[in-house]
Design goal:
The complex is a heterodimer of chains A (209) and B (121).
Chain A lengths: L1 E14 L5 E9 L2 E7 L1 H4 L3 E8 L7 H9 L5 E8 L12 E2 L9 E7 L4 E3 L1 H5 L38 E3 L3 E13 L4 E5 L9 E6 L2
Antiparallel strand pairs in A: 1-2, 1-12, 2-11, 3-4, 3-6, 4-5, 7-10, 7-12, 8-9, 10-11
Chain B lengths: L4 H7 L15 E10 L2 E15 L6 E8 L2 E8 L5 E8 L31
Antiparallel strand pairs in B: 1-2, 1-5, 2-3, 3-4
Chain lengths: 209, 121
């Protein structure tokens, strides 16, 4: 899995070679610095840790300051591990990786934290259909969940019963997004379709080979 | 909401096209290319402009016509490479920027008064 950490910038649309209008998300990805290399001998698995987006030293703890100083870089905001990084794109400790690991036209996965929706009912949260109509005595039951189960057996509500509650703010991965364009000067990757999270939130871009 | 600079940078790769200016209530003909297999030909769509929407390269306009007895609407992006040309057939007097009320009207009620304008405009 090769990849980068990025920041969602916003959405727009571009035209492909056939003149079709394609909705796109602009992601500022990298350059990411390799701040740690995990090896099979020492850690039991292979991966590299990448760091992205500068932050002032004042906002960084002493422990992290030392971690970044060891890699010879400025403090960063986000750290993420990428296991089984492809050997051809893999960089050594302290070196940086940029958008040139991606090719226009290939497919990638983007994961991020979805927008928080707050406390939501079952209709929005789980796609229940609610009560069909407003008449036949349904004066306040339009979006109610209905029955939670049978009565004397099992005399309890099963675990995992879908109910109202906090929605959103989960880790979501959008898979198989096509790369429409890459602008290396500004580290921009333009992918087809939408990406989880609000504008300005951080996302992880992965490519499985 | 303003678009971030970096989104504008991506959009700047799409070329803006120049068309005669029109607004809601005008009757226009859009000539656009369609592909049939390997052949390309030009087809036209004439109708009343309902709205202009968006800005820059993502700006679009909606056209409505009555085909047979059925209303047909099409949304064209201004920057679409498939648009060959746009002709203005009539300029209408309307008080709104978006004339969705036209959807509910049929026959004589769906008429729009013609606006006088200078030829140079």
């Amino acid at each position: 899995m090769s990849g980068l950490i990025g920041k969602k910038i916003g959405m727009t649309s571009v035209y492909d070679a056939d003149g079709r209008n394609v909705p796109c998300t602009v992601i500022q990805a990298g350059p990411c610095v390799v701040t740690q290399v995990r090896t099979l001998e020492k850690d039991g698995y292979e991966s590299i840790q990448l760091a992205f987006d500068d932050i002032s030293e004042k906002k960084t703890t002493k422990a992290l300051q030392g971690h970044f100083a060891k890699a010879g870089t400025t403090p960063k905001r986000i750290l993420a591990e990428f296991s089984r990084f492809e050997a051809e794109h893999r960089k050594d400790f302290g070196e940086s990786i940029s958008t040139d690991i991606f090719i226009i036209g290939e497919f990638i996965d983007v994961s991020g934290t979805s927008k928080g929706k707050g406390f939501q009912g079952v209709v929005k949260r789980h796609g229940f259909s609610g009560v069909g109509g407003a008449t036949h005595g349904q004066h306040n039951r339009l979006r109610a969940p209905g029955s939670l189960g049978a009565s004397s057996w099992p005399s309890r509500v099963f675990k995992g019963m879908r109910m109202a509650g906090r929605m959103g703010g989960d880790k979501v991965k959008a898979i198989n997004l096509k790369i429409m364009d890459i602008i290396p000067e500004q580290n921009l990757v333009v992918v087809k379709g939408s990406v989880p999270g609000a504008n300005g939130s951080y996302v992880k871009i992965e490519r499985w080979s | 909401m303003n678009k971030p600079e970096l989104v504008k940078l991506v959009e700047s790769k799409t070329a803006l096209k120049e068309f005669p200016k029109f607004k809601a209530g005008d009757t226009v003909t859009v000539n656009y290319t369609i592909k049939e297999g390997n052949k390309e030909r030009i087809q036209s769509f004439q109708g009343v402009v309902l709205q202009l929407r968006g800005a820059g390269t993502t700006k679009t306009f909606t056209i409505r016509k009555i085909s047979g007895n059925i209303g047909v609407e099409r949304i064209f992006p201004f920057c679409s490479p498939n648009i060959d040309s746009i002709e203005i057939n009539k300029r209408g007097v309307v008080r709104r920027a978006r004339i969705f009320y036209l959807r509910k009207l049929r026959g004589k009620k769906a008429r729009i008064k013609e606006r006088r304008y200078k030829a140079a405009n």
